[in-house]
Amino acid sequence: MNLLLKMHLRQKFALLLIAMALPTVLVAVFYLSQSNRAVSTARNELDGARYMQSVGSLLARVTRHRTVTNALLSGDTSGRLEGGRLENYIETQIEQLNGLDTELGGRYDTNSIWHQVTGQWHQIRANAASVTPEQNLKDHDELIQRGGDRFGVGVGHGSHFI
Asked: Lesser CB count within 10 Å: N end or C end of the chain?
């Protein structure tokens, strides 16, 4: 108390301002920190959704490819042109997803899964004319199941969807 009596009015006023400003500064710092975390989480979720949407689109095309190649292997040649278009479209999507995998695969720990999926696709494409319809269905089903499940879990956990 003696200290306050010895202080000039300007010094007392400055001390009062500091005492009042300190809680305001602390609240602002905590608010900005929390806001940055929320923005980071939202950005992570959006990136995960973009990645999953692209993978889902690819797997939808693989599903269609499964149907067309099964018909071809069963003797229906009317879908040969569509099968070729689907394969080209899937290859284009794979190239686009390679870029997304480079950007986001490390964050979501999906690089190895992506390489397995693309390897399995290339194997399916190479063997498409020489397998039985049943094996064709089995190979496509494995790719669709593994790709969907593994990407869903990897990206879901990594982007905090799950």
From this structure: N
User: Considering the entire predicted model, what is its pTM?
Assistant: 0.78
The answer to whether 30 touches 22, Cβ cutoff 8 Å, is no
> What are the b/e assignments for 65-96, b being 16+ CB within 10 Å?
bbebbbbbbeeeeebeeebeebbeebeebbee
pLDDT (mean) for 50-55:
91
In this predicted structure, the answer to whether residue 161 has a pLDDT above a threshold of 80 is: no
Structure tokens, 34 = 């929390």
CATH numbers and ranges of domains, the chain? 47-158 (1.20.120)
Question: Which segment of 57-61, 62-66, 128-132, 156-160 scores lowest on mean pLDDT?
Answer: 156-160
Alpha helices in 74-132 (DSSP H): 80-108, 111-127
Q: Hey, how many other C-beta atoms are within 10 angstroms of the C-beta on 23? A: 9
